């Protein structure tokens, strides 16, 4: 596992480099000007299309505009909004939320462009079961430019399909399932494997029905779960309304300055907050990733731009509304920089790890250190309530030289809680490394529970309204995860269909894929150990897809922009009238 983490981390350092993120943001700004601020069109004409005013029964496709939007939203409005925002703030600080907003704004035009392209090149040979996505854009688009470029298009399409499957497995499946299992264990003591079995069976019953059943289920679940979660979040924010101006000031200030470590928050440079905000926003909104166009390609319409405009609503709803509510709840609660929940019986000792030869383990410039097991008692009842159980993951904050990720001095050292109420509780810590010549010290007194993703958001609700997070967030997490997993299951299925299209149009490979996809839920609930690993793996697939899809978008941008301006010119001339 450690080797997998190391390799994934090395790849992420390249694909998520600040310069790469700036390029993606720059492409979003380019498309914003190129399509004449299409965000406005999404919020006006896009809403009219979703309500069915332009539906035509005879158009090719399997689902209507509302179902297509719901299916895509079920993949985007998910645990990325509950868990992803929590990860962004707990790792990158309040400034990360500002960069999430930036992605939400430009993401509207990124999404409109990629969906329009996929609608232009989708395969409607079977009108009731169309196939689309960036793989079909590359496959057909390069051929349209020149038949000689057909091999290039096929190669690019295959590469995208493979990255799609990686992202399906990591962010679309593992991230969702693991968060559900974690929050169920955190609040109710439900073993991870039981949560995995329940989710596996539920997902399996839906995805065997294909896009029609997924669209029907998503059309029912998404509006309900969004409304319930937003109402709970707005209620919590209303209780802290006097603090909202200060929270916005903090968000804007820390977006451009270092965030000093306080309590559980270890701090980070402005660049680190920028990185985490953009990572989680791209993961949550899927803007530029190329996944949502697969769902939209099943929509009933003859007008590619019409569905593209509908898709622009997704980043607005997902990032600018739902993520903002989650972020304000977390910031207003103070759970992101909370005090320690457990206090030491005696302060733990930190010493170098000695090997048989009598010297500290590690390379010359990297020494391994260990923290002696320490007895603990509860110091914060509200945070520790129901968390005191065997195997609970905790951490302490140490100063151990410059943290390579955050750029500041503090780091987390994780451990595991053992014991019982009657026998007492003890924490056994993992070993950690520090540069040669640096003597690590404890930066904060006490031990913190490692609330990861959705569990942190739930604790934020509970700190403001005790008991609210106990139910609203776990229920929302289950619904969000379920809807996201079934939608991403369809996305991955379309990648399989393309890769095996020459063999019975990929139909023979679909059922084995569905079985493996469902089994992956069971594996994932035991696979990831910490919040850092959760962040690492979930952003890995997103990054790969961005690197392949953004060039595809740029290559065919002229075609989609020409279609965009032509569509609205015809709309302005009254050539397209509502059907009802």
Distance N to C terminus: 57 Å
The proportion of residues forming helix, as a percent range, comes to 55-70%
Radius of gyration: 24 Å
The largest sheet, given as strand count, sense and whether it forms a barrel, is:
7 strands, antiparallel
Shape: globular
The averaged pLDDT comes out at: 86
Short structural summary:
With 580 residues, the chain is an alpha+beta fold. 63% of the residues lie in helices and 9% in strands.
Break the fold down into its secondary structure elements and pairings.
Elements (H helix, E strand, L loop, with lengths): L1 H14 L2 H17 L3 H13 L14 H12 L2 H14 L2 H26 L13 H12 L4 H39 L3 H16 L2 H30 L4 H11 L15 H16 L6 H5 L7 H8 L1 H21 L8 E3 L5 E3 L9 E2 L2 E6 L2 E5 L2 H4 L8 E7 L10 E11 L3 E6 L2 E3 L6 E2 L5 E2 L4 H11 L3 H32 L7 H21 L3 H25 L1 H16 L8
Antiparallel strand pairs: 1-5, 2-4, 3-4, 4-9, 5-8, 6-7, 6-10, 6-11, 7-8
């Amino acid at each position: 596992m450690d080797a997998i983490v190391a390799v994934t981390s090395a790849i992420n350092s390249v694909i998520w480099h600040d310069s790469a993120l700036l390029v993606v943001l720059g492409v979003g700004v380019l498309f914003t000007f190129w399509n004449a601020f299409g965000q406005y069109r999404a919020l006006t004409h896009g809403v009219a299309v979703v309500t069915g005013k332009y539906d035509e029964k005879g158009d090719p496709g399997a689902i209507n505009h509302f179902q297509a939007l719901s299916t895509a939203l079920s993949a985007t409005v998910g645990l990325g909004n509950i868990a992803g925002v929590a990860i962004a703030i707990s790792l990158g600080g309040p400034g990360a939320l500002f960069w999430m907003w930036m992605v939400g704004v430009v993401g509207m035009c990124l999404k409109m462009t990629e969906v329009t392209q996929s609608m232009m090149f989708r395969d409607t040979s079977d009108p009731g079961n169309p196939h689309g996505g960036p793989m079909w854009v590359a496959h057909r688009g390069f051929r349209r430019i020149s038949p000689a470029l057909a091999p290039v298009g096929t190669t690019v399409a295959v590469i995208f399909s493979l990255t799609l499957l990686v992202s399906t497995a990591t962010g679309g499946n593992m991230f969702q399932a693991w968060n559900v299992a974690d929050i169920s264990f955190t609040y109710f003591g439900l073993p991870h494997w039981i949560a995995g079995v329940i989710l596996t069976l539920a997902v399996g019953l839906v995805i065997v029905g294909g896009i029609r059943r997924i669209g029907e289920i998503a059309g029912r679940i998404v509006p309900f779960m969004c409304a319930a979660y937003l109402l709970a979040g707005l209620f919590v924010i209303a209780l802290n309304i006097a603090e909202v101006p200060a929270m916005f000031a903090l968000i804007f200030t820390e977006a451009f300055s270092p965030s000093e470590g306080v309590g559980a928050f270890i701090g980070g440079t402005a660049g680190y907050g920028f990185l985490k905000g953009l990572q989680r926003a791209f993961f949550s909104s899927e803007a530029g990733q190329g996944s949502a166009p697969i769902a939209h390609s099943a929509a009933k319409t003859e007008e590619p731009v019409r569905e593209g405009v509908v898709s622009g609503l997704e980043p607005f709803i997902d990032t600018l509304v739902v993520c903002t509510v989650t972020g304000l709840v977390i910031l207003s609660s103070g759970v992101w920089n909370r005090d320690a929940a457990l206090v030491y019986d005696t302060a733990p000792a930190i010493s170098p790890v000695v090997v048989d030869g009598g010297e500290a383990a590690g390379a010359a410039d990297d020494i391994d250190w260990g923290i002696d097991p320490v007895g603990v008692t509860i110091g914060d009842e509200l945070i520790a309530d129901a968390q005191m159980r065997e195997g609970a993951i905790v951490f302490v904050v140490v100063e151990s030289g410059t943290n390579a990720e955050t750029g500041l001095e503090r780091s987390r050292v994780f451990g595991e809680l053992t014991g019982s109420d009657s026998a007492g509780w003890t924490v056994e810590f993992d070993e950690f490394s520090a540069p040669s010549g640096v003597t690590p010290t404890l930066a904060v007194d006490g031990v913190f529970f490692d609330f990861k993703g959705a569990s942190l958001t739930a604790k934020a609700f509970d700190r403001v309204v005790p008991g609210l997070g106990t139910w609203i967030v776990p229920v929302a997490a289950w619904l969000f995860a379920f809807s996201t997993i079934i939608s991403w299951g369809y996305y991955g299925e379309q990648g399989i269909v393309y890769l095996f299209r020459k063999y019975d149009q990929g139909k023979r490979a679909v059922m084995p894929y569905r079985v493996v996809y469902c089994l992956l839920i069971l594996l994932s609930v035991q696979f990831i150990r910490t919040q850092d690993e959760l962040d690492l793996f979930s952003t890995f697939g997103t990054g790969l897809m961005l690197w392949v899809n953004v060039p595809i978008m740029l290559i065919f941008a002229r075609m989609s922009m020409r279609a965009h301006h032509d569509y609205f010119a015809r709309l302005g001339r009254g050539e397209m009238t509502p059907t009802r």
